[in-house]
Amino acid sequence: MIVVYGIKDRLNPIKARLSDVIHGCMQTVLGMPEDKRAHRFVPLEREDFYYPGGRSDAYTVIEINMMAGRKPETQKALIKALFKEIEAELGLAPVDVEITIKEQEPYQWGFRGMTGDEAKDLKYKVRV
């Protein structure tokens, strides 16, 4: 699951395109299938979103939650692909994008009535 935060006046107009870019990177780097898009957008009022100095109102935070298992080099490739594609497709400078990957063990995920370690029919690989 991916959660994206930003100032609503800047995030709302681009969220559909941003979702496409994010999912495209997830497919290219991680091999995620087309139907595994799980994105949540949290548009915030300006007064509810504090961010570091040197950033513009376009500052956007992307939190990627995934089952543990991807190699560090795979995770780094995903982060770099996101920076590159978000800048190329949406014009957001890398300084205005923050990306974090949060990993949880498969047994800490629950979906379709089971835990992630019980799922044997995933259409994507976790160990990449």
TrEMBL record:
Gene3D superfamilies: Macrophage Migration Inhibitory Factor (3.30.429.10)
Superkingdom of the organism of origin: Bacteria
Coiled-coil regions, chain positions: none
One Pfam entry name: Tautomerase_2
Protein name according to UniProt: Tautomerase family protein
Organism annotation: Natronospirillum operosum
